Amino acid sequence: MKIRCFQKGFNYSQDGRGNRLVLHLQGCNLRCPWCANPEGISPAGALMVDFDWLTAACCPRGAAQDGALDRAMCRSCPDKPCTAMRQKGIRLSCVEIEVDDLLSECVGASPMFFDGGGVTLTGGEVCMQLDAAKALLQGLGDRGIHRAIETNGTLPGAIELIPLVDEWIMDVKHWDDQKHRQWLGAGNANVLDALGKVCADHPDVLVRIPLMPGFNDSPADADAFAGLLGPVAARDNVRAEVLVYHEIGKAKWAQCGMEYTMSGRVAPEARGRLEAALRDAGLHVVRT
Questions:
Q1: pLDDT per residue over 182-194, tens digit each?
Q2: For residues 209 and 250, what is the distance between their CA atoms, to the nearest angstrom?
Q3: Is the pTM higher than 0.70?
Q4: Which of 72, 85, 130, 244 is exposed most, by the fewest CB atoms within 10 A?
Q5: Sequence ranges of the chain with CATH classification 3.20.20.70
Q6: Would you identify the CATH topology of the domain 2-44+93-286?
């Protein structure tokens, strides 16, 4: 069984406890306009351009001309020969690897899993490659490696991973189904269903709210999030975190030939207001 990854690397405490190897799995079912990893959206991977290295020689079929890539030609190209060439101007965002080989990489990295660390699967969206993710998580657990996932919770298969995960990180992007659907391309019914199940059944849950300008950063949104999450605050297994909008991934949208449409900023007081509302509702609020 194979799995597609577009990024691998270590970080400390931002995607789970301790020092972790974070694996970004290719493919996402949402279309968040602020996405920091747009190269991870397409299940097949994205052709990414490094404009400093893009020359006509990067594409044997003539799609690279005058410092730009003709994406229409790329879409009709059946085999993407540019991705097999030794050049830096064009690359496919992801690689495909056998699950067993990736598992061996994780085991080899285990001396770095200090302070309760381990392996985190994120995306894209983990559940887009559900069977492969299950196999990898099972293998990690069999070897005693701490497992975390970061999921958007919109796919029904997410709850199948509950027994295979030691730390569960889930985005709750909006409390309103219509706005969730309008901005992101899917409603939040499955998110709320997964939220209820995981908070009831899992011992270690981190709920993340990405705070975005014009999307969910108003005083009314803060009250609504507190009302939504208040019922899960009764158990001490649930933490909440507010992540504030940034433009770190903006340049990658152009590299993928995609338009970045987000604008504006989150008011300085919005994060504190939402955190206070969550605390008042009984949530344990953290910053990682």
A1: 999 999 999 999 9
A2: 20
A3: yes
A4: 72
A5: 2-44+93-286
A6: TIM Barrel (3.20.20)
